[in-house]
Amino acid sequence: MSAEVLSQSEIDALLSALSTGEMNADELKKEVTEKKVKVYDFKRALRFSKDQVRSLTRIHENFSRLLTTYFSAQLRTYVQITVGSADQVPYEEFIRSIPKMTILNVFEVPPLDGRILLEVNPNIAYAIMDRLLGGRGASINKVENLTEIETKIMSNIFEKAFENLREAWDSVADIDPMLAEFEVNPQFLQMVSPNETVVVISLNTQIGETSGMINICIPHVVLEPIIPKLSAHYWMQNVKKESAPQSVAAIERKIRHADLPVIAELGSTDISIQDFLMLDLGDVIQLDQTIGKPLTIKVAGTPKFTGQAGKVNKKIGIQIINAIQGGSDDDE
């Protein structure tokens, strides 16, 4: 617990008050020993620990970097997206905090239950759309009059952008984000009950000269199955597991089961472009390989053996005669 530090003048005044009787030392002790009452608002139930919120912040810092790369490639302009804050609030409070008309993308994230909301400030949304249509990235706010074409463009770009959440979340859950609903009026959107606790991750977004916010609203019901994975203990365990080196025997076992292409070359030759263009059915190409000369057997494209072609039961086969020393083309 942090203690308040008094200045020298405050200490002198306190000692003077005690010596003159203006203050009673017993009353001071009584105040200290009294139980402190902390106000608790049941409408703002805190269902996530600070540790879990920090883990969510770390996950979405990675997501913001992926979004920066994605939008930079799509818009070909300066884009900067960073995590501004991560808070847990009632769903009703979040809805009141966003504009009355805005861009709302509702995503399902199977196999997790519930839905996640991606709210994009209209200034950012229009700057993105203007840039996609060949403009300079100017922003106008007429979200209440979206045309069908504008709605389709916006929903497509944000649906593809949100696919990056799969990679950002792969350490805690294997999800498959899918756009379920596109809306512009928050009052028509009721994902969860008004008092349901949600985590809101706010992303500071800069598109060219336009700035605004992108908010990700995640209800408690979505995160409930993976809450244990949001603890620092889980992350530290994962780091230890990933850093543990594999044994030589385990690596050898994996290598032994790797597939390698094996090719026996019957021969080769060089022809001119003119001759190649004149080839037709029934034509014969003479190879530089004589019948009595052993064939070269290549493993993964590298000459390794010489062999003799033949027949095994009803299939063509090749018998290995010698190993090529060094396993390179120079050794043929």
Can you summarize this structure?
The protein has 332 residues and is of the alpha+beta class.
Characterization of this structure:
Helices cover 35% and strands 24% of the residues. The protein is of the alpha+beta class. It has three domains: 14-41, no CATH class; 44-243, 3-Layer(aba) Sandwich (Chemotaxis protein chec); 258-331, Roll (Surface presentation of antigens (SPOA)). The protein has a six-stranded antiparallel β-sheet with strand order 1-5-6-3-2-4. A hairpin with a 2-residue loop joins β9 (302-312) and β10 (315-323). The longest helix is centred in the first third of the chain and has 26 residues, at 50-75. 22% of the residues are buried.
Please give the structural blueprint.
Layout: H1 8-20, H2 25-33, H3 50-75, E1 79-90, H4 91-97, E2 103-108, E3 115-120, H5 122-132, H6 148-162, H7 164-168, E4 178-183, E5 197-207, E6 210-219, H8 220-223, H9 232-243, H10 248-256, E7 262-265, H11 273-277, E8 295-299, E9 302-312, E10 315-323
How many DSSP H or I helices?
A: 11
CATH homology superfamily of the largest domain: CheC-like
Characterize the biggest β-sheet.
6 strands, antiparallel
Q: What is the arithmetic mean of pLDDT?
A: 81
Low-confidence parts: none
Number of strands: 10
Number of domains: 3
- Lateral arrangement of strands in the main beta sheet: 1-5-6-3-2-4
Q: Based on the coordinates given, report the CATH architecture of the largest domain.
A: 3-Layer(aba) Sandwich
Helix content: 25-40%
The CATH C-level name of the largest domain is Alpha Beta
What sequence of helices (H) and strands (E) makes up the elements? HHHEHEEHHHEEEHHHEHEEE
CATH topology of the largest domain: Chemotaxis protein chec
Structural class: alpha+beta
Shape: elongated
Rg over alpha carbons: 34 Å
Oligomer: single chain
Terminal CA distance reads 78 Å
Strand content: 15-25%
Organism: Litchfieldia luteola
Pfam family, one: FliM
Domain Flagellar motor switch protein FliN-like C-terminal: 254-324
Family: Belongs to the FliM family.
